[in-house]
Amino acid sequence: MITKIESYINDCKHFVAAAINDVEPFRIKYLGKKGIIADLFEEFKNVPRENKKDVGQKLNELKDIVQEKINEFKLKFEDTTSSLEAIDLSLPGDPVKTGTRHPISIVRNEIIDIFKRIGFTVSEGPEIEDDWHVFSALNFPAEHPARDMQDTFFIKPEDKILLRTHTSSVQVRVMENSKPPIRTISPGRVFRNEAISARAHCIFHQVEGLYIDENVSFADLKQTLLFFAKEMFGEKTQIRLRPSYFPFTEPSAEMDVACNICGGKGCNVCKYTGWLEILGCGMVDPNVLENCKIDSKKYTGFAFGMGIERITMLKYGVNDLRLYFENDIRFLNQFKASF
Ligand code: DAH
Fold first, then answer.
1. By C-alpha distance, which of 322, 291, 296, 293 is closest to 309?
2. Across the chain, how many H-helices and E-strands are there?
3. Rounded CA gap, 99 and 138, in Å?
4. Would the pTM count as exceeding 0.90?
5. DSSP conformation class of 319
6. Any residues with Cβ below 6 Å from ligand 1, and which?
7. Is the pLDDT confidence value at 318 over 90?
8. Residue 334, class by beta-carbon neighbours within 10 Å (0-12 exposed, 13-18 middle, 19+ buried)?
9. How far apart are alpha carbons 214 and 224 in whole angstroms?
């Protein structure tokens, strides 16, 4: 009988429960009413007296081992089941923060999208430019104040290499490198030697527009800009063009949109005029066309240039330019990109 009990002991020692469900059958097999141990105790009654002590000890040993195994596996599985219960696997996971597009990028993409819909391509040029593309080809007289060190960051003053002060330089490059019809917009960064404040910054973004073909008129310019204003600020948006001056356009104008904050009634944003200036524009000066080897007798065209920061300010009510560059995520998180 001792060998039989020892073989049970051996079996028990090697018992491994793969899951909590394996523990109860094991308990019943050994400790159940009709289990192995109950049978062995039945048998024990017939063990001769002199052997009772040894057999009894072995039997108790078996009982202890069975109990230990049951406890061991109960503990193991109870632990994991209780922590499994604490985790609700049906709950959604922690969201992965993907960040948001910068408001300047959102508005730039929206401007590109609007002009693409009426056939404009996108072209880009270098940020480090020469005097010709930024000033001379655009009909700036030699003594024009914009060339002054106050406004322009010169990289190599002796070679007249500088950071472009406007994206109008790209229209020169496009005209030099392609033939009309030309219909393009040029978004990009520009640089001016300005003191940083809520209303001015030394780095900002512009979008330049250029349309050159036969018979392009001021009416085309006005309709194009009206379409843009309505798409950008809403169907009811009104525009007005005021005469202005730029060396590279003749005639030149500045365009205002009706203030979308007060609806044109007058408020501190529009300085109680009801209008907000958003861009400069005009018919490309024949001198500029000729500088770029385009026949000014055959072709006419219009150009316009707008500041992306300004449009973004008006669209979203941002009142300080510096916010765009501070990378404060509390500011940036407020802009949800549809572009
Ligand atoms: N380049 C001008 C600026 O930086 C903006 C501008 C005005 C661009 C009139 C144009 C234009 O193409 O026709 O202020």
1. 322
2. 12, 10
3. 40
4. no
5. -
6. 166, 168, 208, 246, 249, 280-282, 303-305
7. no
8. exposed
9. 16
